[in-house]
Each structure stands twice: as C-alpha cells, then as structure tokens.
UniProtKB/TrEMBL annotation:
<dbReference type="InterPro" id="IPR015057">
    <property type="entry name" value="Rv2632c-like"/>
</dbReference>
<dbReference type="InterPro" id="IPR038070">
    <property type="entry name" value="Rv2632c-like_sf"/>
</dbReference>
<protein>
    <recommendedName>
        <fullName>DUF1876 domain-containing protein</fullName>
    </recommendedName>
</protein>
<dbReference type="Pfam" id="PF08962">
    <property type="entry name" value="Rv2632c-like"/>
</dbReference>
Length: 91
C-alpha cells in the first residue's frame, strides 16, 4: 500500500487578448521554494477565436517548462548531495 508523503500545489494563471494567450505556472514545494514557468500561444488571424484552446496550448507549454525546470533542479540536488557530476535526467 502506498502512502502520500507530500503534496505539490500548482497554480496556473492566464492573460489573453484577441491574438495571444500567456500562461504562468507555479509550483510550491514542501521546502517552501517556488518554481515558475511561462507559456505562450498565438492565434493565427484566420482561425476562429477559441480562448480555451489558447489556454490549453499556453498552459501545456508552461507546464512543460515547469517540468524541465524541476528535472534540472533534481539533477543539481543529486550532484550537490553526491559531490560529483551525474548524467542529465531526460524526459
């Protein structure tokens, strides 16, 4: 049986105009640190205005960037704890 030891709280915020959607993702970690990332989506002028689609694209890009930052953070912590340079963590 698995038990939950910690939880992460992720917040997403969006800002939009007729052509662009911007997303900011932030995760608060149990140690009190925060990691933030940004994503962007642009609507081609011939496409219909679908704000939800822009949010999904910008949000996914922000979450992808957040994931890459978390992998980099984990890699640095592994190196700091081991005192050596380890292989990069790949997705």
């Amino acid at each position: 049986m698995m038990h939950t030891a910690v939880g992460w709280h992720i917040e997403m915020e969006f800002s939009e105009d007729d052509q662009h959607t911007r997303a900011v993702a932030m995760v608060r970690l149990p140690d009190g640190s925060e990691v933030r990332a940004h994503g962007h989506a642009s609507r081609h002028y011939t496409d219909s205005n679908q704000p939800r689609v822009g949010e999904e694209i910008a949000g996914a890009r922000a979450l992808n960037e957040l994931a890459m930052q978390m992998l980099d953070k984990a890699h640095r912590e592994i190196d700091d704890a081991s005192g050596r340079v380890s292989h990069p963590i790949h997705v």
